[in-house]
Amino acid sequence: MADVAAVLLAAGCSTRFGAKNKLLAEIGGRPLIRVVAETILEAPIPEIVVVTGYDQRLIERALDGLQLRFTHNPDWAKGMGSSIAVGVSSVDADVDGCFILPGDMPLLLPALLELLIEEFARAQEMPIIVPVTTSGAQRNPVLWPRRFFGLLTALSGPEAGKRPLSALAHCQKTYPCWMISCLRTLIPLTTWRGGACHPFDRKCGEETCRPTSIAVNDAANPSSLSKPSASTKKRRRSAPNATARK
Known about the structure:
Blueprint: E1 4-10, E2 26-27, E3 30-31, H1 32-41, E4 47-52, H2 56-62, E5 69-72, H3 80-89, E6 97-102, H4 110-122, E7 128-132, E8 142-145, H5 149-153, H6 162-167, E9 172-176, H7 230-238, E10 244-245
Parallel strand pairs: 1-4, 1-6, 4-5, 5-10, 7-9
Antiparallel strand pairs: 2-3, 6-8
């Protein structure tokens, strides 16, 4: 399997969400950003770089004890492009590729990450792997091969990865994903339906607790999802049990 890193974006201030940073909103007793980080740690991804910006100390505290490292973007307010650039610049230069992961994907599944890595490794010349919905709409996380790291480190301002993706359509391999729900990001509180528990609590199966943009039949079929591989578990056990900073 290819050696792939992940850049977890946690620098924004989530103004549309309300007064509180949505990455610190609790889901099942855990901050959202920790839910996403722990999901990535279950996949065969040995290196995770978290890009901080707004609420730097609180984000670091929320991820305390996890096997990842931080890099700070002092220009986080200028837009996501600068955070992608800072994150990719901090990734080990020897990796084959890198996921760009928004920090607000609470329904992300480690099995999806593993499937995307497998697709990346199987393809010739390791293309950009782009998950898409059944209707062909591009979603996150996108897996970028190392040969495009220079392009990503040159991003700035509000520009994210969509413009480079448009220019590199010939270098992409799309991955149709029927696990629609795990491609969703957290949406503003004003769109929730009523319900007693948090809409993204994985322990909750009540229809009334689902966000309006996610249909009940969007949920992934658990019987088709693979568990973390033995090599992944071994790699996690052998990694140092400390949170590093860079």
